[in-house]
Amino acid sequence: MLLLHLQEVDEKLWAKRLKKLLGNYKIVTRDDDFNRDDIRYIFVWKPEKSAFDALNNLKAVLCLGAGVDALLTHPHLPQSVPIVRYANDDLTRCMSDYVIANVTMHHREFSRFRDDQINREWGQYYPPPSWDISVGIMGLGVLGADAARQLKILGYQVNGWSRSPKNIDGITGFFGPDQLNPFLEQTDILVNLLPLTPETSGILNYGNFTKLRRRILPNGPAIINAARGGHQNEMDIEKALKDGTLGAASLDVFNIEPLPKNSGLWQLKNCYITPHIAAISSPENGASYFARVIRDHENGLDLINLVDMDCGY
């Protein structure tokens, strides 16, 4: 039996999609009457404190999201049950689209030209070609690796920084704490797609912003964060955008969501805010993914995209 425990999404719609795909396989939601000993899989998003209580026969926890940092801090998360995270082509393509759109926007100095338009100034600044711009991607998992490949196709110099060495054709790789500074020093536009762990928390900070390259983009380097709000020090970002340490920022995630109305980030012309929509999990594609996970596992195949509990992602 599959239990859906999905908050802040349309749980009934997900149940309908999954029932259509799984046929006779029993599916229940939190509001249904069921025996908790019969639950073999639980499909979660922002689970309540009691979500895992008395689920003694779980085979897997299915997480609606590529990032699992919030789930891993759940006080009653079963420690011996494998966790499957969401990773499919739909999610990956959406994230790459978001990254590409914002990289090209900052490369082509849209902040500058928007100001010129408001001031009715005909300032013919000519941005450099893509091959003069170095994009640094922090995090080379499924999402980061795809974004790196797509940016490379567009002609950008692409560097990547990760916890451990990664070998991606055409991408210059950096890894580990000792190589973070050399990576930053070669970066004009910094993209964060890291998992949130104790080691990466707060990595988008003023000290690291000062290490970014300032040779190419006239208004200064830019950052893009589409991973987790916990990666960024928002006061540092505001300060860097005001004093010119950063030329621009694109932020899709925040420490508190929705972003409080009194945040100074709202008012900055060189800060582009989106409401956590970079990569969305659609019920149609997500249901197909998780239905396949359950069918395959019930037929004896291994679970896919398992979370490494030691690494935290």
Unreliable parts: none
Name of the CATH architecture of the largest domain: 3-Layer(aba) Sandwich
Number of domains: 2
The beta-strand count equals: 12
State the distance separating the first and last CA atoms: 26 Å
Amount of beta strand: 15-25%
The CATH class name of the largest domain reads Alpha Beta
Q: What is the average per-residue confidence, as pLDDT, rounded to a whole number? A: 96
Order of helices and strands: EHEEEHEHHEHEEHEHEHEEH
Helix content: 25-40%
CATH topology of the largest domain: Rossmann fold
Q: Describe the strand arrangement of the main beta sheet, using strand numbers.
A: 8-7-6-9-10-11-12
What structural category arises from helix and sheet content?
Answer: alpha/beta
What's the Cα radius of gyration? 21 Å
The CATH superfamily of the largest domain is NAD(P)-binding Rossmann-like Domain
How are the elements arranged and paired?
Layout: E1 2-6, H1 11-22, E2 27-29, E3 41-45, E4 60-63, H2 69-72, E5 83-85, H3 89-107, H4 110-118, E6 134-138, H5 142-153, E7 157-162, E8 172-175, H6 180-185, E9 189-192, H7 206-209, E10 222-225, H8 234-243, E11 248-251, E12 271-273, H9 283-298
Parallel strand pairs: 1-2, 1-3, 3-4, 4-5, 6-7, 6-9, 7-8, 9-10, 10-11, 11-12
Helix pairs in contact: 1-9, 3-5
